[in-house]
Amino acid sequence: MANFILFSLLIVSLPFLATAAPCGGSCGDLNDCDGQLICINGKCNDDPDIGTHTCGTPSGPSGGGGGGSGSMSAVLTLNDFSEGGDGGGPSECDGRYHANTERVVALSTRWYAGGSRCGKMIRITARNGRTTTAKVVDECDSNDGCENNIVDGSDAVWKALGLNEDLGRVPVSWSMA
C-alpha cells in the first residue's frame, strides 16, 4: 500500500517537476518553452509578435526570431509590383516600380520591421522543396488589410519556386539569405 501511495504521488507530481525548454530546445507546443519563448518549427524561440530577445537576437528570421535556421512559416501571395499593377504605388523601400521579371517581395508589417529589411535578400522555400531568393522592396501593410504572415511575391518569385500562380496563396517558409 505504501508503494502504491508513493507511486501515485510521483505520477501526480511529474508534470510539476518537468522543466520548460530553453532557447533552441525541442518543443511540441507553447507550454513546452521557457518564459516568453514560443514553439516555432519544433524549437523554442523568441516570440516575434512581442519582440522578446531572450535568445540573443531581435525577433524574426535571422535577427528576426525563428531560431536555429531562422526560418519562419508564411503565406506567399502574388503581387504585381509594376506601374499600374495591383501593388498600388511605387515600392516603399526605393520609391520605384519593379518589373514582374524581378524577384522582389513585400513583407508583412512586423517582418518589414520599419524598413530595416529594405534592399536585403530573403530565401523562400516552397513545400515542393524549391528555394529562391528575393529582394525586400516593400511593406504589405498589416494596418491596411495585409495579414501578419505574408510574403507578397512577384511573378518571378512564383515562377522560380515552380508554383501555380492561379492558387494565389501558398504556404512557404522564409529566412534572411
Automatic annotation (TrEMBL):
It is found in: Secreted. Pfam families: KWL1 (PF24300). Residues 1-20 form the signal peptide. GO terms for cellular component: extracellular region. Gene3D superfamilies: RlpA-like domain (2.40.40.10). Keywords: Secreted, Signal. InterPro entries: Kiwellin-like, RlpA-like_sf. SUPFAM superfamilies: Barwin-like endoglucanases. Its main location: secreted. It comes from the Eukaryota. Belongs to the kiwellin family. This is OLC1v1003857C1.
